[in-house]
Amino acid sequence: MNAVIYCRVSSKEQVDGTSLDSQQLACKEYAARNNLTVVRIFVERGESAKFADRPQLLEMLAFCSKRDHGIEQLLVWKVDRLARNVGDHFNIKAGLMKQGIQVVSVTEPIDAKPEGKLLETILAGFAQFDNDIRAARCTQGMRRKIQEGIFPWRPPLGYKNANRPGAKKSLPDVPDQPAFSAIQKGLEEFAAGSLTKAALQRLFATRGLRTRRGQLLAPQSIDNMLGDAFYAGIIRDPWSGEDIQGNHLPMISRMTFNDIQQIIGRRSRSVPHRAARSEFPLRSFVRCVNCEASLTGSFSRGRSARYPYYRCFRRHCDNRSSYPLTDVHREFETFLSETSTDQHAFAHLKNAVFHVGEASASSVSLKLEKRKAALKRAKDQFQQLLRLKMDDLLTDAEFKTQRSLLSSQIAELEGGIDEVEPEIESVLSQLESLRAPLGNLLELWTELNIENRKRFQLLTLPRGYVFGRIGTAQKGRLFSLIGASGTPNASLVPPSGFEPEFPP
Question: Which stretch of DSSP H or E encloses residue 8?
Fold first, then answer.
């Protein structure tokens, strides 16, 4: 029987220590005792188990998915090595079980028995609980540092950590020269109104200012620097939004920082991002033909005009394609034209609605009859209770208890007696008002505003569609019903006045 081993540590200290070695040794000893052949060992170094996108974990899952490896067991030292989230643990386990692979903890008695499953759930829950407690304590510690005027994270460019390497942060950050002076002069010149953002970026480049990685500052870095209140001696609590006076040496005064914000506000001409734009109604609805990721929309500037495209911006897509807007819209418009209901299909739709309504009415009638019978029994029991009390066969306490129970039951049953049966004819008359819109879906789509267009699109194709393969997309329930109505594939035109044959 073949098996793989998965080990994980979440800190550098554990990587350098003996934790990984002890995990591997325990797993190998278990494999030897149980006659398992270890095909491969996957080791995750310094990765948290809060997330399921760990490199070695993904590689291990891909390795196990190949049938030719013949893997039947996954050995872990403890349950929390696999995941510190209950949902991730059981999702990973379910995926492996589909491939016939059993997850085994070599130090914990989890198995397929009821008590083993219960223990596994408890252990996974404790792992998540422990992780949540650590996160809460970490957050509390960071907020406490902020209240003390100490920035708990790595300081921005121009400052450096005053604490010795590896020690907890207990001292405020100090200036990092010569970057501190270069940034200070640049911010003061910008506040005086003598520089633009681009000019400030060039000035920093000429003065030799570089990022910690030795690269020139990008425009985004300049924006972040101009809006960072840390340079004015302010530490902002990201959880409450409160501004705390920091203990570090301010690079600029608060007045200078406010002047910078006013200049940025006056010069900014940026347009707020809009999730829904009328130019690209199918954005996030149509998907890339290569990676099936949702497409976004943007314009490309030509010599004399701007041209709209739907684009795939997924980083790992092999072919980050652009699709002309007219081609994408033409495919969807053709789909709407072909999906529109003719007289024959609408008649079948009405027939289907009639039968559904008839079945619903029958169900309601049956439920009402059962409720009436139950109400009659409850009232008979109440009368019998009164007779028993009059004959002194019940104590006061017993009578009050039974009377309360029966009264509640009678009130609940009487509340549902007036339930109205669905009026099929009313539903059909309302459905008739949809005949025209369903008969011309393309016209309906073009007349809707952008918000209603998106709702309409999800009604027709709830999961969207891949460009070029709209014919295979899953249709909405209404349009699936129309498509499955049994419309004959004949070139004959349905006879005039054709209507469904409703039962008398």
Answer: strand 2-9
Separation of alpha carbons 358 and 425, rounded Å: 10
> pTM of the entire structure?
0.42
Q: Cβ neighbours of residue 443 under 8 Å, at least 6 residues apart?
A: none
CA neighbours closer than 13 Å in the CB half-sphere of residue 125: 6
- Please give the CATH topology (third level) of the domain spanning 2-134: Rossmann fold (3.40.50)
Per-residue b or e along 314-345, where b marks 16 or more CB atoms closer than 10 Å to that residue's CB: beeeeeebebebeebbebbeebbeebbbeebb
User: Closest by alpha carbon to 491, among 336, 341, 331, 344?
Assistant: 344
User: 159-163+172-267 — its CATH code?
Assistant: 3.90.1750.20
One-letter amino acid identity for 319? N
Parse the chain into domains and list their residue ranges.
2-134, 159-163+172-267
Helices (H), 308-395: 325-339, 343-390
200-257 pLDDT tens trace = 999 999 999 999 889 999 999 999 999 999 999 999 998 888 899 999 999 999 999 9
> Residue 494: which residues within 8 A CB-CB, separation 6 or more?
342, 343, 344, 347
